[in-house]
Specification:
Elements (H helix, E strand, L loop, with lengths): L6 H17 L8 H13 L2 E2 H7 L4 H13 L3 E6 L2 E9 L1 H22 L4 H25 L1
Antiparallel strand pairs: 1-3, 2-3
Helix pairs in contact: 2-5
């Protein structure tokens, strides 16, 4: 029989861990919306603004303004969509990809130090939860479709 999941406790644990994880990197500070756009483009590749709107919790004027700023900062580029002249395709520049890579590398380093402080049993539990968290992410992505 499968173990009962205390979803209330799981939610609290994720809410408590998230701010710690988000703040781990100290390289070049950005606000949450900026980082979300950079990470979404990093994982999804080239997207239309309308596709990006579906993943970000911003209204179109705010996202358009943010995209303009990121383009001016050299972190993303816009180019016409060859299949629709009215639409623009957004993708990260080399500098944008470097920001995402640097943040990831720093998170790995800092999170490794935290994980090293766990007992061997705790590390075993954490290791076995990686696939489950990945699956939850996949399920959430399917629901957005």
């Amino acid at each position: 029989m499968a173990a009962e999941v205390d979803v209330e406790r799981l939610t609290t644990a994720i809410e408590d861990f998230n701010p710690i994880f988000i703040r781990l990197p100290a390289v070049r500070r950005f606000n949450f919306s900026t980082l979300s756009v950079l990470h979404t483009l990093s994982r999804s590749g080239t997207l239309r603004l309308t596709d990006l709107l579906a993943t970000e919790q911003l209204k179109q004027p705010a996202l358009t303004s943010l995209v303009t700023k990121l383009e001016q900062d050299g972190l993303l580029q816009r180019r016409p969509d060859p299949t629709d002249g009215r639409a623009m395709l957004l993708s990260l520049t080399r500098a944008g990809r470097q920001v995402v890579r640097s943040r990831h590398t720093e998170r790995v380093t800092k999170l490794s130090r935290l994980v090293d402080r766990l007992t061997p049993e705790e590390r075993d539990v954490l290791a076995s939860s990686i696939d489950v968290l990945t699956r939850l992410t996949e399920i959430a992505a399917e629901e957005r479709l």
